[in-house]
Design a protein that fits this description.
Length: 89
């Protein structure tokens, strides 16, 4: 199991980033949350099997078609199984 926090920078708000992340998380079987930050970035907390989380992070590096991701900062988080589903906050 893997649990990470990603802060995604660039043109990531107002481009369906959160809704698209929810769709991809469900597709990959990843639990966690995604939310807009007041500074214009997006925070993604993802947990699940290593490969599924890695797939979601690879997708987040590009985001949906209208997004322009400049940077993804990752932080490994301790613990697992905090989430039972994926939600937009």
């Amino acid at each position: 199991m893997k649990r990470v926090r990603a802060i995604i920078s660039g043109r990531v708000q107002g481009v369906w980033f959160r809704a698209s992340t929810l769709e991809k998380a469900l597709e990959y079987g990843v639990c966690g949350t995604v939310r807009n930050l007041v500074d214009g970035r997006v925070e993604l907390v993802a947990e699940g099997e290593d490969e599924q989380v890695d797939q979601l992070l690879r997708w987040a590096g590009n985001g949906p078609p209208m997004a322009a991701v400049d940077r993804v900062d990752l932080e490994d988080l301790p613990g697992d199984k905090e989430f039972s589903d994926f939600r937009i906050h």
